[in-house]
Amino acid sequence: MAAAAPARYGVQVIVVVTDIALLLFLVVIAAAIIRLRSLIAVVMLAGIFSLLMAAIFLILDAVDVAFTEAAVGAGVLTVLALGTLALTTQREKIPQRRQVLPIVVVLVMGAAVIYGIWDSPNFGDPAAPVHHHVAPRYIEQGPTETKVPNIVTAVLASYRGYDTLGEVTVIFTAGIAVLLLLGGRRRKAGDRTDD
Amino acid sequence: MIDYSILRVVSKLLIPFILLYGLYVQFHGDFGPGGGFQAGVIFAAGFILYGLVFGLEALRRVLPPAVVRTGIALGVLIYAGVGVANMLLGANYLDYSVLGPTPATGQHYGILIIELGVGITVASVLVAAFVAFAGRRE
Questions:
Q1: Which residues, at least 6 apart from B109, have a Cβ–Cβ distance to it below 8 Å?
Q2: Where are the alpha helices (DSSP H) in chain B?
Q3: Domain map of chain A by residue range?
């Protein structure tokens, strides 16, 4: 045990340093996204932002979430956003006059979030309420009740099957909406030729 | 982008592995990270890459719009259908225990089937969205 303690400490230091570096990158990229007017650069930076978020999720041991973030946020969403730019415009319009209301809303909301964080339990706190409701049951009984070693999959697909069905229905609805809004081109081709 | 030979060759090399990896994530999601959502996205990414490099017409030949539209609904139907099947077998909606010889095996089967439904819907919706966005330019 005595030999293991320094090794764990070393890992902790590496994790903290990596966390700080990744979060600093996030802040820099977010600032660049706000400043830039070229929307193609903004889309690219947003993809990098997602990739960094995926790395942070990975450090937090949320592998499944990191997987989704990297695939959807950095991959497919970038392509769809570029497709949108190809349909609209590639440069952001410069606002004519200074807007005061948005910055006030952002500051108030940010302050509210930070105020809320003070009340939430520390990261990894074993006494946090979330670890005392249904989570112990899932962790202890999941592997025997579902024969699925990946607890995330067991919770997502079985214990929380209704929620996941709802999520799939949301994706289904979103797909139908996109097809209704953008997919019906052939029918309109006769009476509308502007493009 | 079909004129760029490097893009063409590299994407032709990569696409089979992307699709294979999508299948791996789909059917290995109960043992490792991943599952229907991630697998669907990766699978769709393979087809979107094909569409980007070889054009929408080529993508429509490989994956006809009717197939994509069917897939969007099919995945949700598979998921909800498993729930109905459970009710017909005498259990609660989405309680997979009755699907197999033992409750735990039934749960395992149920999870695999609904994850497949999730994967089909997610992949179809993303491909459909890409085709809808890119198709407006034509």
A1: B96, B99, B100
A2: 5-27, 36-54, 56-62, 65-88, 103-135
A3: 7-92
Task: Quote the radius of gyration of chain B (alpha carbons, Å).
Answer: 18
Alpha-carbon distances of A144 from A156, B29, B44, B133, rounded to whole Å: 16, 17, 33, 45
pLDDT at A167: 93
* CB interface of B with A, residues 2-21, below 8 Å: none
The angle, 0 to 180 degrees and rounded to 10, between the axes of the packed helices B36-54 and B5-27 is: 160
Q: Say what the alpha-carbon torsion angle A108, A109, A111, A117 is, to the nearest 10 degrees.
A: 160
Q: Please give the Cα distance from A125 to A131 (Å, whole number).
A: 9
Residue of B100 and B59 predicted with greater confidence:
B59
How far apart are the CA of A22 and the nearest CA of chain B, in angstroms? Answer: 22
Q: Measured between CB atoms, does B120 come within 8 Å of chain A? A: no
Please list the alpha-helical segments (H only) found in chain A.
4-35, 39-59, 63-68, 77-87, 101-119, 135-146, 151-154, 161-178, 185-188
pLDDT score at A2: 45
Q: pTM for the complete prediction?
A: 0.84
Q: How far apart are CA A78 and CA A66, in angstroms?
A: 16
Question: pLDDT by residue (tens digit) across A150-175?
Answer: 888 888 888 888 999 999 999 999 99
Residues of B in contact with A163 (CB under 8 A): none
Tokens of A140: 């202890």
The pair of structure tokens assigned to A92 is 């952001």
